Amino acid sequence: MSAHSVENNNIFSKGEGRRAAQTDWQAYAAAYDLLSAHNPEYQSLLTGFEGFLSQLNGPPVIYDIGGGTGNYSQIIARCCPNSQIRFIEPDSGMLGVAQRKLSDHDNIIFENAGLESAGAPGDADLIVSIHSLYAMPDQEDRLADMRRMLRPGGLLYLVDLGREMNVSDWRRYLFGHLRREHGLLGACRIFWQGREIAKQNANIRSSQEDGTYWTHSGDELATAVRDAGFEILRQEVVYRGYSDLLVCRAIDL
Ligand SMILES: C[S@@+](CC[C@H](N)C(=O)[O-])C[C@H]1O[C@@H](n2cnc3c(N)ncnc32)[C@H](O)[C@@H]1O
């Protein structure tokens, strides 16, 4: 067992005895892009990703796993028009929003499946997984799936929510931001329109508390990623301290 052994550190054990996830991604889908438009932290992740992508030379095959409403694939499709994109998303509501958003692009294959049942071949040069790993079952196996789906030397751009979602903290932060940008009435209006987001974020929090969703420190995520066959090229804490961003390279198995 290696120094980074997942079993030794027991970092996945919280999920034992899981019950079904409570987050209703379908209900979330309709309001999800309010987040994109009004959350500066979300915007900053998108900008950071675009900066990362611009340093690469158009990876030929890119997978967006748990791609949600397609905001990351939209950047990929714009910056890498010659790449083949495989969009893997189990929720039909999220997938539908993404398909409409990306309908102008003919270089995207949509797969309505969770990573655990995705039929994607192992030909990816880049895998993008943003805020979806924590919601998947058996993260150790899912990271191994991502490693298998990459060519040796391929890259994984991983952002994952690791810390428990403090819904009041986010509400205060976002309301303060919206009030500065749109005034009190504007902030109230946007909050009302996006009330489903607050509800689903509270569901995410309870799924984290009961162990359905994985919570981790940056070190625990790094250990899991190394154990799955990656070397870590870059790691930072993002999303107001709630998430970890790792850029990793697939090593020879
Ligand atoms: C918070 S959203 C993130 C969406 C998108 N990556 C983004 O950052 O805008 C999490 C996504 O993970 C998806 N998801 C949940 N379980 C999954 C699984 N087993 N495999 C792949 N994706 C999953 C959800 O359906 C949802 O669309």
From TrEMBL:
<protein>
    <submittedName>
        <fullName>Class I SAM-dependent methyltransferase</fullName>
    </submittedName>
</protein>
<dbReference type="InterPro" id="IPR029063">
    <property type="entry name" value="SAM-dependent_MTases_sf"/>
</dbReference>
<keyword id="KW-0489">Methyltransferase</keyword>
<dbReference type="GO" id="GO:0032259">
    <property type="term" value="P:methylation"/>
</dbReference>
<dbReference type="GO" id="GO:0008168">
    <property type="term" value="F:methyltransferase activity"/>
</dbReference>
<keyword id="KW-0808">Transferase</keyword>
<dbReference type="Pfam" id="PF13489">
    <property type="entry name" value="Methyltransf_23"/>
</dbReference>
